[in-house]
Amino acid sequence: MGQQVPCEAKIIGATLKRLRKAAGLSLMDIARALEVSYQQVQKYETGNNRFPLEKLHQLKEFYNIDYDVFFAGLSGGGPLLCSEEAQGIVSYGMKLNMMSDKALQAKLLKALDIFLFD
User: pLDDT tens, position by position, for the chain (118 residues)?
Assistant: First the structure.
């Protein structure tokens, strides 16, 4: 029997995949940046292999993003949710975080805040 993939690894892996796709990059592009095989990148993205800290730092620099982007969907050191719905919410949050128009980003965040918490 195979080992069950931890929820946290799946969430971080899904984040890695969304970042790659949002940037229009291939598995090979990321593999070259990380100096690993494209198969290894696939394993990171599915959560089948844990993502080493040094590789996390490389991708942080590569994408020019904050570390917390990688951990979207995790709360208090554990999984917020592992459902598809939760992953969709994380995906939208990442897209908002990567917006270049900060004024529009602020308006969208305010609207979401009102919708979700009022």
Answer: 456 667 778 888 888 988 888 888 999 999 999 999 999 999 999 888 888 889 999 998 998 888 888 877 666 544 444 556 556 666 676 677 777 888 888 888 777 767 666 5
* CATH code (residue 52): 1.10.260.40
- Report pTM: 0.61
In terms of residue numbers, what domain contains 53?
Answer: 7-117
- Dihedral over alpha carbons 15, 21, 34, 64 (to 10 degrees): -70
**Cα–Cα distance measured from residue 73 to residue 57, given in angstroms and rounded to the nearest whole number:** 19
